[in-house]
Design a protein that fits this description.
With 460 residues, this protein is α/β, with parallel strands linked by helices. The protein is built from eleven helices and 13 strands. Helix 5 packs parallel to helix 6 and helix 9 packs antiparallel against helix 10.
Length: 460
């Protein structure tokens, strides 16, 4: 018998591409379910869905990474190319491309905190938009009627603010919008407080808003570093004063606000002046205005006295101008009347000549023309005589007015003397030696002091 030969070969396992990718994915996910990776971000590509796609790399290698929207929304800073980070996540496989990638669930800057980096990024962003520019800062009212305060109603901050306001200006109207100033939802309530006061109308609308809280860590003060709070302050039509933390604390709200106060109590001092200081300033200004009014009144009295001397001249000049205008108007009316009468005469002649054909038309026309020319000459002579008479009378009035003009008298060497009260001096006894006088001449005025005087009747 021959010996039987058996050939045993294992059955082949043939994977589809999808099956192999799924096996690799399960292997990687089971091996690296949670790990920390440090590297530098490159090729950052934010998607419209909210996901972040980027590459983590070092000097020798790189790995693709994705941060899905649910994790990206909680990042405290804005990832950027070239930023060194520490990422926590798991290794996964994107089967459609057969690529492994790091699914990032937490991300923080390497070497510095996420909050500090977020603070610097937002500060740079808003500064580039001009929200910190001094030109857009609104001035605070000199004396607000109502002050709006956005802060916690339970903390010591509101008590400190009310105590300072009561001390500086009793009975000041203060409106409080209660808002959380720390923790989740605090930023939203601060924004709502600012928007509420801006939406008020009538007597309840504040003239200035104070946004305040006490000191704390960067995490405690973080609501005042939120972009929503910064933009609400920038959009406020009412001036906003930021009084957050202590003197060494700075927040984004401080840079955007119209005025930054180092503490909440200092904010209360900045929005309203001391009542006593304001009253003293008003009294000083009232005294200054009274002095200025007396000076202006004395100057006005002097000018009024001087104007009275020339009133007659100005009145006559105005009447003379009116008469001259009346003469011109009358001459224009006479000339128009003359033209109208000549036109009517020509029309009558034309009408008559058309109906009288049996007479010698040429002779009749010559007679009418001669009569018309004679009448025109007589009217022109009468008008010229009347116009010359009016002009002669006008020149006479002008000559008489020139002789009676007070300024013409001054041109002949006369002068007008006034004492320091502005009264005209007609008697030397009106001014004592040492008294000040002003002498008005034809061109200009002289100021002097009386050294001596001679009393007399004033007659030659």
């Amino acid at each position: 018998m021959g010996q039987a030969v058996f050939d045993f070969q294992p059955a082949r396992k043939i994977y589809s591409v999808s099956e192999l990718s799924a096996e690799i994915r399960l292997l990687l996910e089971d091996t690296f379910p949670d790990l920390w990776v440090t590297g530098e971000i490159s090729n950052l590509r934010p998607a419209s869905s909210g996901h972040l796609y980027f590459t983590l790399k070092d000097a020798k290698a790189q790995i693709r990474a994705v941060c899905f929207r649910n994790a990206a929304r909680y990042l405290k800073f804005q990832p950027a190319d070239g930023l060194a980070v520490i990422a926590r996540g798991r290794v996964g496989v994107y089967e459609p491309r057969g690529e492994y990638q790091l699914v990032v669930e937490f991300l923080e800057p390497a070497g510095r905190g996420a909050l500090q980096l977020a603070f610097e990024q937002l500060k740079a962003k808003l500064a580039a938009e001009g929200l910190f520019d001094a030109a857009r800062k609104k001035p605070l009212p000199a004396l607000p009627k109502t002050i709006g305060v956005v802060t916690s109603p339970a903390g010591a901050v509101i008590r400190d603010i009310l105590r300072v306001l009561e001390r500086r200006f009793p009975n000041m109207n203060v409106r409080l919008y209660p808002a959380r100033v720390q923790g989740e939802g605090a930023a939203r309530e601060i924004v709502e407080g600012i928007e509420y006061f801006n939406g008020c109308a009538g007597p309840g609308r504040p003239d200035v808003i104070v946004v305040a809280r006490g000191g704390g860590s960067l995490e405690d003060l973080w609501p005042f570093n939120e972009e929503s709070v910064a933009r609400a302050i920038a959009a406020s039509e009412i001036p906003v004063v930021s009084g957050v933390g202590h003197e060494t604390d700075f927040t984004i709200a401080d840079f955007v606000a119209d005025l930054r106060a180092p503490t909440p109590s200092a904010a209360a001092e900045l929005v309203v002046r001391r009542k006593g200081d304001l009253i003293r300033e008003l009294q000083d200004r009232a005294h200054h205005l009274a002095q200025l009014f007396r000076l202006r009144l004395a100057e006005a009295r002097g000018r009024l006295t001087e104007l009275r001397l020339h009133r007659a001249f100005e009145t006559l000049g105005a009447r003379l101008a009116e008469r001259a205008q009346a003469v011109d108007d009358e001459a224009a009316r006479l000339e128009a009347s003359l033209r109208e009468r000549l036109s009517r005469a020509r029309q009558a002649w034309l009408s008559a000549s058309a109906g009288v054909v049996r007479y010698d038309a040429g002779r009749w026309v010559q007679l009418k023309r001669a009569a018309l020319e004679q009448r025109q000459h007589r009217l022109q002579t009468e008008f010229d005589r009347w116009l010359a008479e009016r002009r002669h009378r006008l020149e006479g009035v002008q000559a008489m007015l020139g002789e009676r003009n007070p300024l013409a008298i001054l041109e002949r060497g006369y002068s007008i003397t006034r004492d320091q009260e502005g009264r005209i001096v007609r008697d030397a006894a009106q001014v004592e030696p040492g008294g000040e006088i002003r002498v008005r001449v034809a061109r200009g005025e002289l100021h002097g002091t009386v050294k001596d005087r001679t009393l007399g009747s004033g007659r030659p």
